[in-house]
Amino acid sequence: MSELEALAREIAHCTRCPLHKGRTRAVPGEGPADAKIMFIGEAPGFHEDQQGIPFVGRSGQLLDKMLAAIGIARKEVYIANIVPWRPPGNRDPSTHESQICLPFIQRQIELVDPDVLVCLGKPSTATLLGVTDGIKKNRGRWFTYKSGERDIRAMPTFHPAFLLRQPSSKRLAWADLQAIKKALTETASA
Ligand code: URA
User: Fold this and answer.
1) How many whole angstroms from 190 Cα to the centroid of ligand 1?
2) Which long-range contacts (CB under 8 A, 24 or more apart) does 173-176 make?
3) Torsion region of 70: left, alpha or beta (phi above 0 gives left; psi -120 to 50 gives alpha)
4) Residue 148: is its pLDDT beyond 90?
5) What residues pair up with 40 in beta bridges, in sequence order?
6) Terminus of the chain with fewer CB atoms < 10 Å: N or C?
7) Is the CB of 45 under 6 A from ligand 1?
8) CB-based contacts of 173: which residues, under 8 Å, 6+ apart?
9) Interatomic CA distance for residues 125 and 120, integer angstroms
């Protein structure tokens, strides 16, 4: 069993935060263990909770289209959430819940060790990058995520659920995606 598989098993059995009580299935991260890019959302929704796979509902379908637009297939990326359980009624995970689950996402980042990390929305950005003053202000900017000994380039962008509600913001998300694609291409040819 790989370390990521062992971690997924540990996540599935974790009862440290109250969210596990209302779950149908745990939703650990998904994707290749050697992915060059990692996307981190907030928490599973209804469809993710049913299937045990992140980003398979409407937000996930939009994320797949966004990736395709920059020539990246979903099967190339590692996708995970700050918390691996669906919060009741799809509310935001609390800071307390996010902090309890933080070691799981930190470990996934360490194991996958991507070149680029993309934080989808404010909760992911706040939890992983410590940036709390608004996604509109910080999207499209490069930050550094410290993963063990390694510094990983990290960019916050809009969460696909926000883009479904505010399609006019897709233009800005498109600019972010292009910057992300450029960074990946540069790293690959370095
Ligand atoms: N929204 C998220 O943040 N994560 C999912 O997995 C699905 C929707």
Assistant:
1) 32
2) 173/66, 173/139, 174/69, 175/140, 176/139, 176/140
3) alpha
4) no
5) 80, 119
6) C
7) yes
8) 66, 139, 157, 158, 163
9) 7
Residue, of 167 and 188, whose pLDDT is higher? 167
pTM of the model: 0.96
Continuous H helices in the chain: 3-13, 46-51, 58-69, 95-112, 122-129, 135-138, 160-165, 170-189
Residue with tokens 């993710």, as numbered in its chain: 48
55 C-beta closer than 6 A to ligand 1: yes
In the block, residue with structure tokens 């404010």:
122
What is the spatial distance between Cα 29 and Cα 26, in angstroms, rounded to a whole number? 10
Cβ–ligand 1 contact at 41 (below 6 Å): yes
* Per-residue model confidence as pLDDT tens digits over 68-110: 999 999 999 999 999 999 999 999 899 999 999 999 999 999 9
Q: Are 154 and 143 in contact (CB under 8 A)?
A: yes
The reply to whether ligand 1 has any atom less than 6 angstroms from the CB of 44 is yes
189 CA to middle of ligand 1, Å?
32
User: Is the minimum distance from the CB of 97 to ligand 1 under 6 angstroms?
Assistant: no
Q: By percentage, how much of the chain surpasses pLDDT 70?
A: 100
